[in-house]
Specification:
Elements (H helix, E strand, L loop, with lengths): L2 H17 L7 H4 L3 E2 L2 E6 L15 E3 L6 E5 L4 E5 L5 E6 L8 E3 L5 E4 L4 E6 L4 E7 L9 E3 L2 E5 L4 E5 L5 E6 L14 E3 L2 E5 L4 E6 L5 E6 L20 E8 L2 E10 L5 E5 L5 E5 L8 E3 L2 E5 L4 E6 L5 E6 L5 E7 L2 E6 L3 E6 L4 E6 L9 E2 L4 E4 L4 E5 L1
Parallel strand pairs: 1-30
Antiparallel strand pairs: 2-33, 3-4, 4-5, 5-6, 7-8, 8-9, 9-10, 11-12, 12-13, 13-14, 15-16, 16-17, 17-18, 19-20, 20-21, 21-22, 23-24, 24-25, 25-26, 27-28, 28-29, 29-30, 31-32, 32-33
């Protein structure tokens, strides 16, 4: 592991410990909240107190009784559960896995490890069918594109791998300076891939060939002496057909956001900067019925009408780093680094909360059975 990666991982470890003791929600929301139901929980990694934190994210494949939950573990295993939380298989891999997982059109599940190895997993039979070695670790979420998968590595490379584990193409960008351990992930729209790399490059590529369409450098300064100065991407780019800011109506744009940095709105065709905003995001806004919902790392949750640019409401949460929202059952769901899950109405009212301990560095995964959430202490929860 390079010094830069080791520094960032160590910083994330101590930051998680500090924020796990963050103050509770503001008094206006703490007293009357209902309690969310934990349907079941399990210890994925069998983690000991001194073990490294776990950053992986699950995926669900299959339906009905054949539905399976697949998640990589800090114990260098891929764990496969049924929807009742019973472990069915535990498959050895080369190194610990801190990546997300994705299901391809064929039903194959793809997950990466910290060494840069990518695995194709048959979740029904409980078998690792293939692996392929990449240039550096995978800590983002692989992206399904048809029958293939596109992966962004921490070394600022992109790969397209088919369902047989064969490389279709690869794309290499310049190395960056220090970065967060969890990297951003690519986004697919209308035959094109959009990605924000750790060196500050926003890129658009032909998804079929891997050819570069445009590249835009968004960071003037990538040097950071400490974590509080680090500007790094974690949020997945977001394509919008239309959005309004400051009286300007913009069409066919892509949002690229930096943790502790700015959010940029770029023209999808040529990468020209349409506007930028000083707002630190760890996850992309979500769009529902022409309303954009987002929460920044200062705990400001906003709802903005994308047609007019007018703010519909704003809610200030406890001061800590928040991610989300995801939308499920006509509500917004957010996670905080102190291990708190919030349920918020579409009007900004906090409806329920749940404390799980540890810290949460991944968004909840929406399933037909509830929300799946994995914290850094290795706990996997199904919540309703």
């Amino acid at each position: 592991m390079s010094w830069g990666k080791q520094w960032a991982t160590t910083a994330m470890f101590f930051l998680g410990i500090l924020l796990s003791s963050s103050p509770p929600l503001a008094a206006d929301s703490a007293a009357s909240l209902s309690t969310l139901k934990v349907v079941w929980s399990t210890d994925v990694d069998g983690r000991k107190p001194t073990d490294a934190l776990s950053f992986s994210s699950p995926v669900v494949t299959g339906t009905g009784k054949q539905a399976r939950i697949i998640i990589g573990g800090a114990d260098a295993r891929v764990h496969i559960y049924d929807m009742q939380g019973q472990e069915l298989y535990r498959l050895p891999i080369e190194k610990n896995s801190d990546s997300g997982a994705v299901t391809l059109a064929s039903g194959l599940v793809v997950v990466g490890d910290s060494q840069g190895r990518l695995y194709g997993v048959d979740a029904e039979q409980g078998q690792v069918l293939w692996h392929v070695d990449l240039s550096s670790s995978v800590t983002g979420i692989p992206l399904a594109v048809g029958d293939d998968v596109v992966v962004q590595t921490t070394g600022n490379n992109l790969y397209r791998i088919n369902a047989k584990g064969e490389k279709v193409w690869s794309f290499a960008s310049q190395q960056g300076g220090l970065g967060l351990y969890i990297s951003s992930s690519p986004m697919f729209h209308d035959g094109k891939l959009y990605a924000l790399l750790g060196n500050g490059d926003a890129v658009a590529m032909d998804a079929q060939t891997g050819d570069l369409i445009w590249r835009k450098q968004l960071l003037l300064d990538t040097d950071a002496a400490m974590l509080s100065e680090l500007k790094a991407p974690q949020a997945i780019p977001l394509w919008l057909s239309k959005v309004s800011f400051d009286g300007r109506v913009l069409q066919d744009v892509v949002l690229f956001s930096f943790y502790q940095g700015k959010t940029f709105v770029l023209n999808q065709s040529n990468g020209n900067t349409m506007l930028s905003q000083d707002r630190s995001l760890k996850s992309s806004p979500v769009l529902l019925n022409d309303t954009l919902y987002s929460v920044d790392t200062q705990g400001v949750l906003q709802a903005i009408n994308r047609n007019t640019g007018q703010q519909q409401w704003e809610k200030t949460l406890a001061i800590q780093e928040w991610m989300g929202p995801v939308i499920w059952h006509h509500a917004l769901w957010l996670v905080g680094q102190n291990g708190k899950l919030l349920k918020v109405s579409l009007k900004g009212d906090i409806l329920a909360s749940l404390d799980m301990g540890g810290s949460v560095e991944r968004l909840p995964v929406v399933t037909n059975h509830g929300l799946l959430l994995h914290n850094t202490l290795g706990g996997l929860y199904l919540i309703h």
